[in-house]
Each structure stands twice: as C-alpha cells, then as structure tokens.
Design brief:
Layout: H1 2-7, E1 13-20, E2 23-30, E3 33-38, H2 43-54, E4 59-61, E5 69-74, E6 86-93, E7 96-99, E8 107-111, E9 117-120, E10 123-127, E11 132-137, E12 146-151, E13 157-161, E14 166-171, E15 180-190, E16 193-198, E17 202-207
Parallel strand pairs: 3-5, 10-17
Antiparallel strand pairs: 1-2, 2-3, 2-7, 4-7, 5-6, 8-11, 9-10, 11-14, 12-13, 12-15, 15-16, 15-17
Amino acid sequence: YCLSLLFSEPDDVRLVGGGSRCAGGVEWYDQGEWRTVGADWNQEDVAAVVCRQLGCGSTVSVPPGDTTVGIGFICSGSESSLRDCFRGYDLRPELTVICSDLLVQPDISLTDSMGGVFRGHQGPEMFRGYNFTITCSTQPQYPGGSFLLTFTGSNRTQTQPAVNHSAAFLFPAADDSHQGNYSCVYDNYVFSHNFSSESELLSLTITGN
C-alpha cells in the first residue's frame, strides 16, 4: 500500500498549459480547488521542488510568467514536495516551470511485410535475407523533432525527421550484422532548449531460414 502511494501521481500539484505534465504554470490543490502558485526571489528553489515532486527531473528554466498572481511559497529547494515548504499569505507572480523530463518515452517497434519475423524467447527474431522496418514513434506533445535510431555494439546511427510524430527506418535484407540492440532517441527543441528521450531497447536476433 505504501509503495503504491510512493509511485502514484502527486494529487496536490500540477503544471498546466505547457503541453506536457512536466511543463507549465504551477497549480496547487487547496480546499477543493486548483489555485495558481506564485514565487518571486526564490523561484528557482520552488521550481526545483515542483519538478522533484512530479518526478520530472530537474529544473531547466523558469520562464517569466504573465501578470497573474498566486499563492506565495517559500522553499529552500531541498524539500520533497510543496507541502514541506512555507506557504505565505501574500500573492506573488505566477510561477511557470520547465522540467528536464519534458518528453514522454518514445516507442520502438519492428515490422516486416514478408513474414520473416517471429517472436523468440529474447525478443523478435528475423530470418536472413528478409527486409524489415524499425519504427520510432511518440505521443503528439509538440510538433517537429527528429528520431535517432541507435544500434548498440557499433557507432552506426540513422536520423530522420519526425513526421506525424514517427519515423520508419527500412532495412532491405537482414544479415548477421543487424543482430543486436536498437533504441530510438527522440530529440526536439522546445521552450528554447534541446530535450531528448530514449525508448526501451529492442533486441533483434538474426537466424537462418
């Protein structure tokens, strides 16, 4: 029970309007409603606590907010959640936060049109000589970006722009050099910063037909 609480989404803080659960204006759930959070001289400290509480990594930037004001919080920056910070009674400028884990984890998948792939014990297995496609995709958070397909065990990489949030890498004829671990890295330039997120590994085995 304690473990499920530990890994559940925090229910009293959120970031809104930034296209990601890890970016946007900070809101605090208080007395039955979501209220704007404000900070001024200690913005970086409050932002660090918010990113940590949301499991969103570290703070990348604290863009200037608009003219909105919110509940003032004062944090040292080391707290695990906003609940541990001092809540003031004065209103301060709205706090907007961009955290490092902005992009969701992309997906990686393998397909073939010739029936040369089958599921093995360690993952997909591919017959020699058959073509196959590795597709990288991500959720539609932000337009643009690109996918880097990496192949472990060599410095062989391929890059393609993300079209409709995905990219397909075609391999014309499978041979032993294609055996190994592949991953997709999604890169995008958002909020004046470069962000990237890597998929899980896809382990491909090449076998005789």
